Amino acid sequence: MERLQKVIAHAGIASRRKAEELILAGRVKVNGVTMKELGAKAGPKDRVEVDDVPIYQEEPVYFVLYKPRGIISAVTDDKGRKTVVDYFIDVPERIYPVGRLDYDTSGLLLLTNDGAFAQRLTHPKHEVDKVYVAKVKGIADQKKLYPLTKGMRIEGHRLAPARYEILSTDKVAQTSIVSLTIHEGRNHQVKNMFQAIGLPVQKLKREKYGELTLAGLRPGEFRQLSRKEITSLLQQSK
User: Domain RNA-binding S4 spans what residues (predicted)?
Assistant: First the structure.
């Protein structure tokens, strides 16, 4: 069940604010009953009408995309840059990304038209592990990475403890490859964490989201999630 104004907006009838005006004006019905309260909700099986015209409610769809670097994690971009939804031109549903990856970060990104699913996975209290692999400037060792495991305070926020694995170091180039597992999703979080311990990120990729991986996908490719994968993500987010 979702708020009625969100259902109307998602169907492309009007913006959410305009949908609220339609509801307050008594122009929206659910199963034949006029709704005039903004707290009203409707589900996929409910008949929603605006000015006595039924609206089409999309079936929920779920995708995993291998986002390339240099792509915006948004539906549109005011600067005209390519966005992640541009890879889905043959998908009729109005999908949007679940969370985001930075412009210069590649890797696993979920997209859906299911608002409850997206909110569930992005809410701070729900803990779904996300695994990033970072190439950092400097030689990573246990002493330098230790603060990551104790929870750091960055930009006024206390972060949950993270897990790491040093994959390789290059003493000649003075770089390291480190895998970092977190379950939060604050803006630039991984980059800020490495910056705080003196290992600035040069390249970043998200390789796992829960149990999902990028197996079988190349940058720019996507696939639909199976029902089993969707259920698993929801269970992990409890």
Answer: 2-59
Q: Which tokens is 99 given?
A: 């969370």
The domain tally of the chain equals 3
Cβ atoms 110, 97 nearer than 8 A: yes
The whole-angstrom separation of Cα 236 and Cα 238 is: 6
**97-139 per-position pLDDT tens digit:** 999 999 999 999 999 988 778 888 987 777 799 999 999 999 9
User: Could you give the CA distance from residue 59 to residue 139 in angstroms, rounded to a whole number?
Assistant: 49
* Bridge partners of residue 167, in order along the sequence: none
Type and span of the H or E element at 20: helix 16-24
Given a contact cutoff of 8 angstroms between Cβ atoms, the answer to whether 30 and 45 are in contact is no
SS3 assignment, position 60: coil
Share of the chain above pLDDT 70, in %: 100
At residue 97, the 3 state secondary structure works out as strand
Q: 98 with 203, same domain?
A: no
First-last CA distance in the chain: 18
Are 65 and 106 in contact by the 8 Å Cβ rule? The answer is: no
Closest listed residue to residue 237, CA positions, set 107, 98, 30: 98
Neighbours of 92 (CB within 10 A): 9
The model's pTM = 0.81
Is 102 one of the catalytic residues? yes
- Cα angle for residues 185, 190, 196 (degrees, 5° grid): 130
Catalytic residue among 102, 129, 141, 170: 102
The domain that contains 44 carries what CATH number? 3.10.290.10
